[in-house]
Give the backbone structure.
Amino acid sequence: FSNWEWLESANGLPAGYQPGVMALFNGNMYLSINDSLYVFNGQNFQFIHAEPGFSISYLSADGQHLLAGLR
């Protein structure tokens, strides 16, 4: 773990974020951050989607689609 780096807003993340669940799908890494879904393009994170009033409790990359479980 000595090579880990904390990524910040310069990488497309919101300030003071809380990382959540992660899934690899179609060669991309998807990550829940706070209550939103982001995708990592190799250098930066890009906002994908959020559902107001819900948080992402799991991501599943089984099958042809990425499935997000909301709570």
About this structure: The mean pLDDT is 91. The CA atoms of residues 19 and 33 lie 5 Å apart. The two ends are 31 Å apart (CA to CA). DSSP finds no helices and six strands in the chain.
